[in-house]
Amino acid sequence: MFKSEEAFSGFSVNDIPKAKKFYGKTLGLDVEEKNGMLELHIGSGAKVIVYPKPNHVPASFTILNFPVGDIDEAVDDLKKRGVRFEQYGGEIKTDSKGIHRDDGPSIAWFKDPAGNILSVLEEM
Question: First-to-last CA distance in the chain?
Fold first, then answer.
């Protein structure tokens, strides 16, 4: 029988040790290594599986969003940890800190070592 309460998300990376260091040390998430994969335990209690893929192609969309109370504070903190924020121009513009503030919640995008896109976004 299909049961949705055990559903989880997953994405690929090309280097599990680099991903473990980034998600565990840089971002400070609870990371567990199992069977050559990672389990990210996020605040909601959900888990996200990170699996190795030799021919990995980075996601061209945001795979994880981290809601924050103060985006400027979160961006400053992550920059101190070595995170580089993406700079966008054109239709979606970011300011000098890498924060898009024009419509919807303020959001800043960054990449993991495998090139997957993540974000911090200010809770409304």
Answer: 38
If you write DSSP's letter for every residue of 50-79 in order, what string do you get? EEE-TT----SSEEEEEEES-HHHHHHHHH
Q: How many residues does the chain have?
A: 124
Rounded to whole angstroms, how far apart are CA atoms 26 and 112? 10
Retrieve residue 34's tokens: 């199992």
Q: What is the pLDDT of residue 33?
A: 95
Distance CA 3, CA 36 (A): 26
* pLDDT tens by residue, 12-42: 999 999 999 999 999 999 999 999 999 999 8
Sheet with 9-13, side-by-side order of all strands = 9-13, 47-52, 37-41, 30-34
CB-based contact 85:97 (threshold 8 Å): yes
